[in-house]
Amino acid sequence: MVDQLKDEDLVFSRAKPDVFGDAHPKALLKTIQEDGDALVKLANQHIISCDQFDRQTILQLFRLASKYESNPKRFNTPLKGKILISAFYEPSTRTRLSFESAWHRLGGDIMSITDRSTTGIAKGESLADIGEMFNNYGDCVVLRESNEDSVKEMTSTLRIPIINAGNGTDEHPTQAMADLYTIFKWRPELLKDNPQKIRVGIVGLPNYMRTVRSLLKIFSLFPEIFEEVVIIHDKTDDDIFTEGQREQLEEAGLNLRLTNRLNKELPELDVVYINAIAWVGDDFESHGDKFVLNAQSPLKEDGIILHPLARGDELSTDLDETPHNWYFSQARGAVFLRMALLTCMVERTEMVMDVI
Amino acid sequence: MVDQLKDEDLVFSRAKPDVFGDAHPKALLKTIQEDGDALVKLANQHIISCDQFDRQTILQLFRLASKYESNPKRFNTPLKGKILISAFYEPSTRTRLSFESAWHRLGGDIMSITDRSTTGIAKGESLADIGEMFNNYGDCVVLRESNEDSVKEMTSTLRIPIINAGNGTDEHPTQAMADLYTIFKWRPELLKDNPQKIRVGIVGLPNYMRTVRSLLKIFSLFPEIFEEVVIIHDKTDDDIFTEGQREQLEEAGLNLRLTNRLNKELPELDVVYINAIAWVGDDFESHGDKFVLNAQSPLKEDGIILHPLARGDELSTDLDETPHNWYFSQARGAVFLRMALLTCMVERTEMVMDVI
Amino acid sequence: MVDQLKDEDLVFSRAKPDVFGDAHPKALLKTIQEDGDALVKLANQHIISCDQFDRQTILQLFRLASKYESNPKRFNTPLKGKILISAFYEPSTRTRLSFESAWHRLGGDIMSITDRSTTGIAKGESLADIGEMFNNYGDCVVLRESNEDSVKEMTSTLRIPIINAGNGTDEHPTQAMADLYTIFKWRPELLKDNPQKIRVGIVGLPNYMRTVRSLLKIFSLFPEIFEEVVIIHDKTDDDIFTEGQREQLEEAGLNLRLTNRLNKELPELDVVYINAIAWVGDDFESHGDKFVLNAQSPLKEDGIILHPLARGDELSTDLDETPHNWYFSQARGAVFLRMALLTCMVERTEMVMDVI
């Protein structure tokens, strides 16, 4: 009977592919000099939008994330006694578990809400009132809600910090932070003087996909590292930005270019970011179905691929075993990035700084 | 871009309004003399109904709750190693999170059931059998179920304690305890000799709303503090009590009066308790829609408002910033009240007593 | 008012019936000599099927389970800092809570998925991709899924261990382990030389019920203890095994016999195992409704009853207070069995061995 079950089905290896190793985060850690003050001030802030960050805060969060990722077992109690309210009123595995894992790895406890229908919202309670209640129950809130105004409704009453983990078509700032963290982890030398600029392609809709909107905002804090940011889409050029969105990004120094042709761009792209899902109302829509990356795609030899969400047909699994695959590293790094952010938000920064 | 996001959206203050401060719970704590024996005996009891309590047990629980609330960070490990089974077969945010927060604050672990459809009940398992299983899985059960008999079905097999967190239209004893705790926290002098009696108005249906039923029962243990309890309702007077309910309350010494007119009573009410939701079967019903409290209501100058559940239109948010608002303190205090009760039920009372 | 509520409703006893006592697990513990190497190797294995075990591994797991059950409070930190991903895409109370309780009792933290509709599967994410994510989030996965191939899909990417907690109609190995553990706990002398063989009756379908399939596989590792294994079913004899299933069991040394008559067999059965539920697709089916055990059933005087799942009409509650009831002990023991398995899988075996 044992014959039917192959050994390879049973035995697994805990070893990690190279991009998951600690060389990259260690290199990034060395590249950024510690500045604890930038993090300490996060103790009094909600995290709502990528608009709210400056370069130094982002870099210090990346430094702390890379410190966690370089040595995952070193810190496991900074959040001891702290309670996270993990409120996901929209379906999610990845983001919810990424946050919850981050919290647990730091020693905290969690209360989860995973379904609107099981909660008081079913009785018509407002998010402002729920926020008032949350003050009594926990030390931090992570909220995902299909309504754009949800986070601001809740912050109107909160006296504990909240993280926007996706509010409709608006923003998903921690995902964008995790995305940029991956790019710096991949190539820490981008943070040195006169870096060799990179060309990034984004397959997606800046006006419709919260991950893309947030990503462009965080890119605009570091315009000097981008030769060009190419938006690859299947709409008309007039239909992919909300009012003023493009202008703001360009004023901040980003070189934007739009195109409908993915494969023509691929040979010149150092980073290809692909996303095919937009959350609209209570459901999701697929966009850009015609854009597909696979092992036959004319990728630049040392180009990497990022993908922020659950993968669909747009990203073939035959790329998983290639060096282009940094989307796994991206998902892994998101946990450490969130660990860094959460630590600061609940006033435990000083427990993990090198110099106090 | 930062302009779009206002600082006031991002920055929050951890400071609490006055009613949330520690002056009130500290005053209540001083008013009640410790009697640990009253609490120790709770280690062998289920919490099913307000009928089961005597004055001394209630007061000692309030004492412990006020001790917790006076110094929220002092005790954080009494429930270490203990497992709560949080079984909510009816939708809830407030009550579930209030219990779970209480348990986590004391250092315990939790397993949650948040939806009937995800459980063995879907396969037809009886509550008695589920209770038998729970004996093996945890140290305490909190149950919310739409069926009145649910708690007793489960106690038929339980060898660990259970708390009734709402069983259909029957009772919700810990909510009533939290309500009365708020009143004593607001005015600890009610516990001294010859207190100045208060007049309380209850907007709700004693025969139909479990919170009102439980509240009147716990009021009846302290008849000497109530000048009068006015039931404000929109039915006929014959239709708001179950058989014998009114007689029992009056025998216990409560002065009850019924009326259909809220605003006429308000100027004389020290406490107004308002609730518009009744759970019937698997859904809720609204009652008393015509009764509304807002900043224009003719409230007594130093009168306070209590509200046990998710707020609907019956309680205007323009009262939130007024001194009448003790409903936020009520929700906050419920966590500490539940901490007190849970500590006693799992045999950890001696870890938090002043004198051992 | 207190009169309405009887004392017997309120007061409970923490004392346990005899089969729940520690005499049986202690006796089993003494019967098996420790061999830590057999457990240490589990640190590199997924748990998919009963096919994968040998006698020594099973016995050592039973030894560790009986050590836990003999002294439930002795070990409470071996999994400190470890995170379980409890992924139940099919409804379950028992199995989920049994695993989660096991994990919590050993000091670990948990993230739960309790409903397919709340997860990324709703967006079409593959189990292989979910497995890749899980690598980043936790230290161990417990998976229940209605699809047979689900576990293997996930192991294709996992670098942390997974336990199959029921995959469609295929297997449920930890349940079978808990079942056999109960039999050895009931009669440890079965493990001595020349044991008095037992006759076991299984009411159920080996080709359709995952619990029965797994049970027969694990029985086949210990053929010397079974006089006979009688399959009691309401189909035709040709319709209860999948291809090759019967032959494999008989080659391993099991004496199998089939019948449609339960009561005729009962007087000779030392162990009756009854199960009426099969999971098929996204729902369950009932089988063998005509087979019922109750206090009038002609059970052998010292015969015992086992039941692996939520009880339906097939097992009358009037047997609960009889010595035939070992199904409660079976459910209780499953927690300790899972504690043993989980300890080994996350490389903490050495923390609980007698000799290191």
What does this structure look like?
The structure is a homotrimer of 356-residue chains. Chain A folds into 2 domains: 18-172 and 333-350, Aspartate/ornithine carbamoyltransferase (Rossmann fold), CATH 3.40.50.1370; 175-332, Aspartate/ornithine carbamoyltransferase (Rossmann fold). Chain A has 12 helices and 11 strands. The first copy, chain A, has helices at 7-10, 23-31, 36-40, 55-70, 94-105, 127-137, 150-155, 173-186, 210-219, 245-251, 262-265, 327-345, and strands at residues 83-88, 109-113, 140-145, 162-167, 198-203, 226-232, 256-259, 271-274, 277-280, 283-286, 304-306. The longest helix of chain A is centred in the last third of the chain and has 19 residues, at 327-345. Chain A is globular and about 55 Å long. Chains A, B, C: GO terms for molecular function: amino acid binding; carboxyl- or carbamoyltransferase activity. Chains A, B, C: Pfam families: OTCace, OTCace_N. Chains A, B, C: Keywords: Transferase.
What is the tally of beta strands of chain A?
11
Helix count of chain A equals 12
Biggest interface reads: A-B, 46 and 43 residues
Which runs of chain A of at least 5 residues are low in confidence (pLDDT < 50)? none
Strand content of chain A: 15-25%
Q: Radius of gyration of chain A, Cα only, in angstroms?
A: 20 Å
Oligomer: homotrimer
Principal-axes shape call of chain A: globular
* CATH topology description of the largest domain in chain A: Rossmann fold
CATH superfamily membership of the largest domain in chain A: Aspartate/ornithine carbamoyltransferase
What's the arrangement of strands in the largest beta sheet of chain A? 7-6-5-8-11
Largest sheet of chain A: 5 strands, parallel
Structural domain count of chain A:
2
Mean pLDDT of chain A: 92
Main structural class of chain A = alpha/beta
CATH domain class of the largest domain in chain A: Alpha Beta
Helix content of chain A: 25-40%
